[in-house]
Write a structure and sequence with these properties.
This protein is an alpha+beta fold. About 20% of the residues lie in helices and about 25% in strands. The protein contains 2 helices and 5 strands; from the N terminus they run βαββββα. The longest helix is centred in the C-terminal third of the chain and has 12 residues, at about 85-100. The chain starts with 10 loop residues before the first strand and ends in a 15-residue tail after the last helix.
């Protein structure tokens, strides 16, 4: 997996079984790096992209992009200078593919909606 540069936000990864990955990558279009490892596809997202979100099962959130398995294979490289897939778009598409209801955190007291 990529190594974060100095001062960068770092990397996390969101994994889905390959049966979802192939469908998701078609819907996601361009974007960040995607790797395949042992029957799972992993999208690189900015560190902390799990804050306040419950990623739908069977997805797996991997802080520091530490994913189980051996020898990641690059499925898709980044379209630009950023290796990231936009996490909210990825989250919504993962919810749709898995038939899960998106769960948004409740706003902090005192904030207007």
């Amino acid at each position: 997996m990529p190594v974060a540069g100095p001062g960068g936000p770092g990397y996390d990864a969101v994994g889905l079984p390959a049966r979802y990955g192939a469908r998701l990558i078609d819907r996601a279009g361009g974007g960040g790096c995607v790797f395949a490892v042992d029957g799972w596809w992993w999208w690189i997202v900015p560190a902390g992209s799990d804050h306040g979100l419950r990623w739908p099962l069977p997805s797996h959130y991997a802080p520091g992009a530490r994913v189980p398995g051996h020898r990641p294979r690059l499925i898709r490289g980044a379209d630009g200078p950023s290796p990231y897939t936009p996490p909210i778009l990825l989250y919504l598409m993962a919810c749709q593919l898995t038939g899960s209801e998106p769960h948004w955190p409740v706003a902090a007291p005192g904030l207007r909606h």
